[in-house]
Amino acid sequence: MDRKHSNTSSTLRNSAETRRIYSVVFEQKGASPPRSVLITSGWWGEGKTTLACNLAALAAGEKGKKVLLIDYNWFSPEVHTQFGIPAEPPPSSSRDVLDKVIAVPGMGDLSILTAAAFTGSESWNDASSIPSQAALINEAKNRYDLIFIDASAVYPTNRNMNDPMLLGKAADGVILVALTHVTPKSKTKRACCALQSSGALVLGIVANQWRNPLSPLSHGPARRHGTGKAGTRLLPSNR
Fold first, then answer.
1. Cα angle vertex 82, ends 21, 126, to 5°?
2. CA distances for 175 relative to 42, 163, 216, 218, angstroms
3. 146: enclosing H helix or E strand
4. Of 96, 101, 171, which Cα lies nearest the Cα of 133?
5. How many other C-beta atoms are found inside a 10 Å radius of the C-beta of residue 229?
6. What CA–CA distance (Å, rounded) separates 134 from 180?
7. How far is the C-alpha of 60 from the C-alpha of 239, rounded, in Å?
8. pLDDT value at residue 180
9. Which of 12, 67, 135, 207 could in theory staple to 233 by disulfide, Cβ–Cβ 3.0 to 4.6 A?
């Protein structure tokens, strides 16, 4: 699906690929599912924001969960554009960042904390500290069933971004998105190893735009943005 068509979405939350990924991560029998999941990628433009929005919309709209989607991609925030909501949080006299969430109409019990919510009551440095991140996610668990976090890509590093390798420590698990046939496997492996070395639990790698080589739809190049007609697969991280 192209990014320009991906905002607010029965289309997104009903996609078969999103359901499969959700089932693998959250509905395994005999396993304790994560409450907070960070979605990142090895490089930019691999589809992590779309996946984060898909999973959050599915969990809230179809699974009946109370869901919070946090935009921690401060360098290039896009979650608000996916749902057509304002980038600025509603006015609030409280210093609690979680009081600045925006409810998304027609999407079940889904709330979004935009990147702009962190620029008011907390300084940039305070909001990016590990204790602050962990405290925010732990407090969110008291209010929501599931927390999805859209983070910056692991590479290239940028001083204005909240490092996903550090942020991954505060979440229960990390999903790494890789755009197949575009991003070299070496970059994806490098990002996965970096996340694991930092102490983050990598739940799996989503192969975006994966094509079955036996399918007639497998011919033609993949695109940098969106998922096109190809699907996604959640691959083990070999942790």
1. 90
2. 11, 15, 29, 24
3. strand 146-150
4. 171
5. 9
6. 32
7. 29
8. 83
9. 207
> Does CATH place domain 35-82+98-119+130-212+230-235 in 2.60.40.10?
no
Please count the other Cβ atoms lying within 10 Å of the Cβ belonging to residue 157: 12
Give the H/E segment covering residue 179: strand 173-179
DSSP state for residue 89 in the 8-state scheme: P
Q: Each residue of 50-103: pLDDT tens digit?
A: 999 999 999 999 899 999 999 988 878 899 999 999 888 777 666 688 988 999
**What distance in Å separates the CA atoms of residue 174 and residue 31, rounded to the nearest whole number?**
16
Mean pLDDT over all residues of the chain?
79
Assigned token pair, 93: 């006299």
- Closest to 82 (Cα-Cα) out of 180, 226, 209, 204: 226
Kindly state the average pLDDT of the residues 20-29: 90
3-state secondary structure of 140: helix
pLDDT in tens, 59-70: 999 899 999 999
**Opening angle at CA 208, ends 192 and 70, nearest 5:** 70
Residue with tokens 């898909």: 54
For the chain, the structural domain boundaries read 35-82+98-119+130-212+230-235
Reported pTM: 0.81
- Residue predicted with more confidence, 9 or 49: 49
Please check whether residue 180 is in contact with residue 43, taking contact to mean a CB–CB distance below 8 angstroms. no
Which residues have a Cβ under 8 Å from the Cβ of 188 and sit 6 or more positions away?
Answer: 42, 176, 178, 205
